[in-house]
Design goal:
It catalyses: a myo-inositol phosphate + H2O = myo-inositol + phosphate. Its cofactor is Mg(2+). Its EC number is 3.1.3.25. It comes from Silvibacterium dinghuense. The N terminus is likely disordered. This protein has ten helices and 16 strands. Strand 2 and strand 3 form a beta hairpin. Helix 3 runs antiparallel to helix 4 and helix 7 runs parallel beside helix 8. The strands form three sheets. An eight-stranded mixed β-sheet has the order 5-4-6-7-8-9-10-11, with helices on both faces. It is α+β, with helices and mostly antiparallel strands. The termini are far apart. It folds into two domains: 198 residues, 2-Layer Sandwich (Fructose-1,6-Bisphosphatase, Chain A, domain 1), CATH 3.30.540; 139 residues, D-Maltodextrin-Binding Protein, domain 2 (3-Layer(aba) Sandwich), CATH 3.40.190.80.
């Protein structure tokens, strides 16, 4: 049975603008991804105000992006739509046994798909809410129109729009991953826009970001997630306990895309979770690697879009986490938790060693 969730927020005044944001960013009749770089200057002039301002030559900036400037306004438009739904409350229903879906999920995906089709007519789309179009084409967008639906439905203010672009050359086998070449994660409540393109760095609202430089798990803040289905014992509860005891803390925000973005910008040192999907991880994985972090499975193997185990770290604590996962999976006794005095001694010794 559907239910209506109400929130004590007055809806904002409707936005009045001459045309949708995505049309302000790019002319769908002229923009093509294969056009030469000079055309990007036109996009950038139109994208001023969205975190894409040219800052001159030399160091790579977000103004060097090829795909993101035209796609960012679409993410912002979808985020504004989610914000409206969130403030007035929406009906929720179930897809399957336990997964929630709302009118906002579907409306956001519809908006994104329609706008992407005008700006990038030759790109395929693979969306969480069922969109499957042009999947044999060279470029494919993985979109999560509302990552954090359970949070959204309960009024918990952590959710986002996630869009990752995969390049799939004709020589690629269907079961093989292409390269994620562009990423956008937009948090509409905080107006935080995370963007990346392969080889060009990662950015938050146009400013460069980097994974943290915290070297030890014991000094780290990490995050995880749990599935909606709770029909059996989940081994992650045991991992949660061990990592809680061996870190500064473990957070569970309920949005994998935001957790990955936070690893990229240094708010978290690591994130792990089971059974995610390409729309959950495509954008965030590129953000993490472009920010200097690492993406892998729990055993340290290379990350894949269809990986059932996802481990994102700042790179410095990866080996420590992989070792702990191995001990837990094998049922081995993990290293004893150090006392405060032992930890202080280890930290002092490490500091002295780095000076010598």
């Amino acid at each position: 049975m559907d239910r209506i969730l109400r929130r004590p927020h007055d809806p904002p005044h409707p936005r009045r603008q001459a045309q949708p944001l995505y049309l302000q960013a790019a002319d769908p009749h002229h923009y093509r991804t294969h056009r030469p770089r000079p055309h990007l200057a036109t996009l950038l002039r139109k994208c001023n105000g969205y975190g894409y301002r040219s800052r001159g030559s030399g160091v790579t900036h977000s103004s060097d992006f090829l795909f993101v400037p035209a796609a960012t306004p679409i993410a912002r438009e979808a985020g504004a739509l989610l914000r409206e739904y969130y403030r007035r409350g929406v009906a929720t229903e179930y897809k399957g046994d336990v997964d929630l879906v709302t009118e906002a999920d579907r409306a956001s995906e519809k908006l994104i798909v329609e706008h992407l089709g005008q700006v990038f007519p030759d790109h395929g789309v693979y969306g969480e809410e069922g969109t499957r179009s042009q999947l044999t084409n060279e470029y494919r967008w993985y979109i999560d129109p509302l990552d954090g639906t359970t949070n959204f439905a309960h009024g918990f203010p952590v959710f986002c729009v996630s869009m990752g672009l995969e390049h799939r050359p004709a020589s690629l086998a269907p079961e093989e991953d292409g390269e994620i070449v562009a990423a956008i994660i937009y948090d509409p409540l905080r107006d935080e826009l995370f963007t990346a393109e392969r080889g060009r760095g990662a950015f938050l609202n146009g400013a460069p970001i980097h994974a943290s430089r915290t070297p030890h798990l014991a000094e780290s803040l990490v995050a995880t997630g749990f599935p909606s289905r709770k029909r059996h014992d989940n081994p992650n509860i045991h991992f949660y306990q061990e990592f809680t005891l061996r870190s500064h803390g473990v957070r569970r925000a309920g949005s994998a895309a935001i957790d990955l973005a936070y690893v990229a910008c240094g708010r978290l040192e690591a994130f792990w979770e089971f059974n995610l999907n390409p729309w959950d991880t495509s954008a965030g994985s590129l953000l993490v690697t472009e920010a200097g972090g690492s993406m892998s499975g729990f055993t340290g193997e290379a990350f894949r879009l269809d990986s059932r185990e996802v481990l994102a770290t700042n790179g410095l604590i990866k080996n420590e986490m992989v070792k702990l996962f191995a001990d837990l999976f094998e049922g081995r006794i993990v290293d004893p938790i150090p006392t405060p005095a032992e930890f202080a001694a280890r930290r002092k010794a490490a500091a002295q060693g780095s000076k010598s």
